[in-house]
Amino acid sequence: MKLLGVLRTKGQRPAPPQGAGGGAKAPGANVVRATDLTKTYAADGVEVRALRGVSVDVEAGSFIAFIGPSGSGKTTLLNLLGCLDKPSSGRLEVAGTDVTRLDRRHAAAFRGAQIGFVFQSFNLIPVLTVLENVEYPLVMVQDRPASERRTRVLELLEAVGMADQRGKRPEQLSGGQKQRVAIARALVTRPELVLADEPTANLDRETAYTIIALMKKMRDEVGTTFLFATHDTRIIGAAELVYTLEDGQLTARQERRG
Known about the structure:
By secondary structure, the protein is of the alpha/beta class.
């Protein structure tokens, strides 16, 4: 089943918070504009400068890897781009919205409507079934009939090869199956942007390549933008653009298109 049919023809994109950009971005348009981002915090009484003036524009439909040693600022940057945290200074626009101006409530609503997350640890809810885990974001951000939600979820689970596992709980799944569920959950609200923090680190070689191929298929068919924080050479090899972060700064940019 083509993901385009699942994600674009079943109802409308959820309404974003006031001031948010609605609708898919055209190819070449920027889904992220980050200008001179800094992030400073205190740890054990010591000031830590996690990001030092990071500027980056991300075109819609990109498949980008951010690499660098542990502590270089990769996860911090993804947290800012995902509206999980705010920069200490700088300007950040995501899907046409200046997210630095959003309060906590509006930031949460914006995340739910515009951004999907895929984590190394999956972050599935243990007491919910596969179907319920994928449906959960729809319950949180959309006022739609349960039957319509279930139809969308089931079609997306079929697209990622997990429809036959929909009644199982996370503890009954393999690592690769959990990651497929996490990807389905990340896409169920039709986000502009998916942020993935080490999504393949705990997966075997075959499963990792399957997951990467699935995400590329989603990008190709739906136009979703994928940003990765990773050490995994498998993702780095699949990325079309690779940024290197060191000591909180972007130090290199390698284009790998074509």
